[in-house]
Amino acid sequence: MNKLHSKRFGTLVSSILIISSLSQAQFKDIDFLKSSPADGVKYLQSYFSPWINAFGAGLNGSWYNTAKPHKFGGFDITTGINVGVVPSSATTFDLSTIGLSSSLTGTGIAPTIAGPKTSGPALTYKVSGVTLASFNAPKGTDWKYIPVPTAQVGIGLPFGTEIKLRYLPKITFEKGNISAWGVGLMHSIMQYFPGNKLIPADVSLFGGYTKLTGNVPLGLNPDPTVSQGYAPAYLATNPFGTQNLNVKVSALNVGLIASLNLPVITFYGGIGYGKTQTDVALSGNFPLPVVVTPAAGAPYAQYNETGVKKGSDFPSINIKNFSGLRANIGFRIKLAVITIHADYTKALYNVFSTGLGISFR
Fold first, then answer.
1. Is 158 exposed, middle or buried (CB count within 10 Å of its CB: 0-12, 13-18, 19+)?
2. How far is CA 45 from CA 99, 199, 240, 291, 312, in A?
3. CA distances (Å), origin 128, targets 36, 96, 102, 290, 336
4. 24 and 139 Cβ atoms separated by less than 8 Å
5. Which structural domain, as residue segments, surrounds residue 91?
6. Order of strands, edge to edge, in the sheet holding 130-136?
7. Helix locations, 17-92, DSSP H
8. Going residue by residue through the chain (361 aa), what tens digit of pLDDT does each one get?
9. Which uninterrupted H or E stretch holds 292?
10. What's the rounded Cα separation, in Å, for the pair 19 and 93?
């Protein structure tokens, strides 16, 4: 594949991925980080968690489209798109419930990243009676559907077992990147029942784990209307253009699956347990305003070296993950070696999936 086609392929894939969806969001509208690191992180958790959880739900999709494992040496190559859906209950949150300090004042209902495209309540950050920053809570995107592509290979093993492998090489776009891998295992329990070959149905146990690592550029800059006290030499060695949001999302899916295998169409479904876990960290230099107390005169707000925070100065970010029962139902059409499938998963974050593949034995 030449460089031009590689670039187009990378652009296409990254445009579908969560991070390209996030590029529609308010990554340039992160004034809430101008407050204390503790308050900024609490707001970030509440604002971004719906999309991240929907993405984690999507990572658990399209693992299977039949409960019948491949025969030993058989295999399939399947690509799919899973769309995680943010529930309506996760489109807004109450500022009074997220534990903001008394230094950051504001009340009311604010949109999450999946919420309405209207500015949230006004927030004011004060220290020692000096107003350091005033801003509105960021708008939402009014977008609840998070597409997650998958590409995987299933390989038949002995004893009615199949292993599934997922892999997405690191794709770089602008200043960010994304990569993913996963492994799943399916084992037939239908094989242990007498007369199983006389029934066009299969039942299997399944477990799958997927992990994604992403790096998204941020853009927090000093307020130009506030006094600037940076030394030129300091800015040359401590630029603000290195800010990043580093995200690691893992998803676990275990359960029991069944399928009815007819000549052209297969109906399948499953019930089990799903769980996501997300670790988020900030890196780079973040300019925060501080109070300056002159020898004569009143204290005032200023951006200077003492207010610059490193990513490590921010508390650990714990996105509210979800876990619980999940159930799905779908169908697959097989024409010679070509397969087409679609299914729906019911969970806290519902998922719609569809895909295309080739399958042998």
1. exposed
2. 11, 50, 22, 26, 16
3. 13, 22, 11, 10, 74
4. no
5. 3-360
6. 104-105, 122-127, 130-136
7. 18-22, 37-59
8. 444 334 434 434 444 444 444 444 445 667 888 888 888 888 888 888 888 888 888 888 889 999 999 999 899 999 988 999 999 999 999 998 988 888 888 889 999 989 998 888 999 999 888 999 888 888 888 889 988 888 899 999 999 999 999 988 887 766 677 888 999 999 999 999 888 788 899 999 999 999 988 888 888 888 888 889 888 888 888 888 888 888 888 899 999 999 999 989 999 999 999 888 888 888 999 999 999 988 888 899 999 999 999 988 988 777 767 778 899 999 999 999 999 999 999 988 999 999 999 999 8
9. strand 290-292
10. 23
Residues in the chain: 361
Q: Which residue has the tokens 């070959």?
A: 197
Position 168, amino acid = L
| Of 26, 239, 215, the residue nearest 113 (C-alpha) | 26
Total structural domains within the chain: 1
